[in-house]
Amino acid sequence: MSTNTATDQPRIVLLINPNTNQDTTAMMGGLAAIELAGTDLEVVGITAALGPRMLIEPNALRDSAEHVCEAVRKYLAGPSGARVAAVIVSAIGDPGRAELASSLSVPVVGIGQASILAASADDRAFAMATSTPMLADSLSELVQAEGRSEYFLGISLTESGPLELAADPEAQFHELHAAVGRAANDGAKAVIIAGGPLSETARRLAVEGLAEIIEPIPSACRLVLTLLAAG
Fold it and tell me: pLDDT for 10-65, tens place per residue?
């Protein structure tokens, strides 16, 4: 009887959720699996062991980098670690991405990084829509770090806060819809829905036609495929 080896099993894209909410991990992992269907890549979602269930302020975002790195390195040291072909850091502020990218031999992609690169393609004007006002400075700094500030029109916020909207998906959709509309009226040709936990709403907004909606999980998956193809 034959047994499976690492060589005859699919390569893994390891999606790490810096938010300590396993339901969010499952949702984001499921969206990534849809995006990577038909490839030789399997999505495995893991969740940071420590930190808040939703990253909504800069200190928590900063502190989560350590927990992200610890979770990824623990997985890489385990029985499936050798099959990991790429890592996706699945929070819009990309906590731990730089640290992991500097120490791992596989591509490490952040959903913030990937979204910014997709939104600003061909030097087009873009904006972000989000429910996390306390992360506005961190998100602007991420745009600057990617060298795309000259095309960035700013952040359009929901009226309600992230925890309130997380408990009410319909309100989340309608308030982000309004935020996207304001960004489009200001001249944005593309709008990033800035937040991993907002990924399902981003998918709904993508068919509304207000502007090109940049979905964080698909953007990260496409960047992973590009990097893997480049070797």
Answer: 999 999 999 999 999 999 999 999 999 999 999 999 999 999 999 999 999 999 99
List of residues 6+ apart from 212 with CB closer than 8 A = 119, 189, 190, 191
CA 17 – CA 89 distance, rounded (Å): 7
Partnered with residue 191 across adjacent β-strands are 127, 213
Q: How many CB atoms neighbour CB 36 within 10 A?
A: 19
Q: What is the pLDDT of residues 195-227, one digit of tens each?
A: 999 999 999 999 998 899 999 999 999 999 999
What are the C-alpha distances in Å from 41 to residues 35, 74, 196, 215? 10, 20, 21, 20
pLDDT tens per residue, range 80-100:
999 999 999 999 999 999 999
At residue 2, does pLDDT exceed 80? no
- Largest Cα–Cα distance in the chain? 64
